[in-house]
Every structure is written in C-alpha cells, then in structure tokens.
Amino acid sequence: MNDHRAPRIPSHRLLNRRNFLAATGLAAAGAAWAATGGGKALATPVPASGTGFAVPLDTVPHTRTWMAWPDSTAIWGRKLAGVQANIALIARTIAKYEPVTMCANSAGVSQARSACGSAVTVIGSIPVDDCWMRDSGPVFRTDGAGGLDAVDLNFNGWGNKQTHAKDSLVAERIAAEVGVRLTTADFVGEGGAVETDGNGTLIATKSSLVNKNRNPGMTTAQIETAMCDAFGASKVIWFNGVTGRDITDDHVDATSRFLAAGDGLVQMPLATDTDAWSKDARQQYQILSTSTDADGTPIAVTKLQGPDYSRIRSSDVNFVAAYANYYVCNGAVISAQFGDTRADAAAKAALQRLFPGRTVEQLNIDSLGAGGGGIHCVTQQQPRP
C-alpha cells in the first residue's frame, strides 16, 4: 500500500489503507519461509554511494512496468473483486504503451490472465501478499552507461502494520528475474515514500521514514545519508507529514512529485479545507517552492488542484483522491478521475500541459482509492539501461 492519503480527507481518518493482519501471523509466515532456506543471498548490503548508479526520473524510457495481483480476502474482504478490476484496468491501459509484467500467486495466475488480457504478462513465480508494487518492488537504477541494477528498500509492511512475508521478498525476486544485481538499502522504507528528480534531489516525509516503526534508533541525518546512498542523490528535502493517520504514515507520492530537475508539483486542497491532510499539502508546497535542488537551483512548483470531496463518486471516508498519484509510462500518463467532473477535466488538462507529447489517460479506480491508494502506488517502472 503505497499510498496514502490525499488532501481533503477527514482529520479523524485512521489507518486507511487496508485491514491489518495479526503480527503473529506475519511472524509465523516469515519463520516458515526462513525454515525453507530463504534469504537475501543475491543482495549485497553495500551502500550505492560512488557506484555511479542512480534512480532516474520516471519520465525516462521504460523496459516494462511491474505490478502485483491481489487475491487476499483476509486483506480486502468484499472489496477484493473491485480492487482486482481496477488493477486489471490499470494493467491493460499501461500495456497499450509498454510491456507489463504482473506478479501473482500461483493460484491466482489464471484469474489474473483472464482479467488482464493477453497484452499483460502474468507470472506465478513471484508470490505476493498484496498489490502495492511501488512499495514492495525493487527501485531500479541506471548508470548512464548501459548498466542497470536494483535496490531493496527492506519493505516491512509499513512498520509491521500488515502481513508481508511474501512482499518482503518481491524486490529481490524481481531483481533475480531481471538478472540484475541487488543492493540492500541501509534504511527501511517504501518506493512511495521517496520521490527523486533524477538529478540528486529527493523529497520525503519525516512521518513515514523518521519513524520508529521503520528506522528505530536512526537519526534524521543517518536516514538521509542512507537514502542518498540508495538513490544516488545528495540532498533530501523533508516535509513533516502526518503520522499515524494512514498505514503509510503519509507517503509523499500522493501529494508531491518531481516533473524534472528543479521542477516540482504539489496537489492542493480547496481553500476551505482545514483537515490534517490539507494542512500537510500546503506545508509541502511552501517548503518545496522555497527550496533549492542539489545543484542550488530554486525549485519551481506547479499547483495541481485536487477535487471537491463533496462532488466525487465515493463517500468512503478513507478515499484517496490523488490526481498527483499518476504514473508516467512510455508515451502516456495514467491518472485517475473521481467524478468531480470540473476538477477531473482541469487535472487532465494540467497533466497534458505538463507532459506534452504524451497521452493522458484518466481511469475510474474508485475501489483502489477506497483502499487508500492510487495508480502510482500499484506500479513500479523498470527503466531502460
């Protein structure tokens, strides 16, 4: 569950991303896997600093998109069918522009293939707990000279809030499937918790990463160093974020994104919104628009207006209506629409201006939004070397 929250969600919302499973079940599953000889033998716990590898901006050409097929009624209950339909829709849409590989449990391969269609490659060799590939999957890096590797961010179920015995192994198993070297990061985090401009600058919320449920005993400076080593960056711009209101502790990628080096985007709430998420979004805008990037260049920030929650289709108090949680693929931007027709149209027009030459596709992913996430949350790009 990569994501999160978005502006304009009631301030009383708690732990919105999915039902949490008992920690004892998680521990038992992990112990059982370890007993079979499992481990991270392919990974090397060496910082990336000085290797020449860095995570590129997501606008670079991709080899493929990685996704995960959810099949757990323990996590999703009666919402599962709707979430699966959304995942299939996203996969089919991206597959019009670039290859998509869907990881599924062996028992779910047939269902996933039927739902996603022949354009999507479904594999049963990488089992999953849930659909949030942005967080469980590897973060791929390139070196500018034809090299590709991957980083494992040590996914721990967003601070052990959800079972992740399978998802904690997805990063290394995808790296092995691709045939690239895997580096283990020196901090615990998720792909949705960190945004990069591909040129040395990162943005993140302290609520998510400087948190004892991920990185106990580590200082902000130590976590920052580990992040820069993993992503091939040199500067972190921190937002305070929102702690304990959703399962991610406020991932950055539902509110703030990088468009390019020195160029950011923040989804803004309505002027009348006063909840914690709206205050968080305004603070992110204020901080990012008054910051410089790793090269010392002032960052220009575009405001992306969020919807009016009183006009969207969903009445779920946990709903995440994040236009900013879009996914960039080869030749397209895959975004969401929520039923506030005026705001939907304005967001599509804004994304079209920001990504000239790419087709903007807007999808109804209301089931996924009610689960606390969006399109960026369930996708992970593999850039071309």
From TrEMBL:
<dbReference type="InterPro" id="IPR007466">
    <property type="entry name" value="Peptidyl-Arg-deiminase_porph"/>
</dbReference>
<protein>
    <submittedName>
        <fullName>Agmatine/peptidylarginine deiminase</fullName>
    </submittedName>
</protein>
<keyword id="KW-0378">Hydrolase</keyword>
<dbReference type="InterPro" id="IPR006311">
    <property type="entry name" value="TAT_signal"/>
</dbReference>
<dbReference type="Pfam" id="PF04371">
    <property type="entry name" value="PAD_porph"/>
</dbReference>
<keyword id="KW-0732">Signal</keyword>
<feature type="signal peptide">
    <location>
        <begin position="1"/>
        <end position="34"/>
    </location>
</feature>
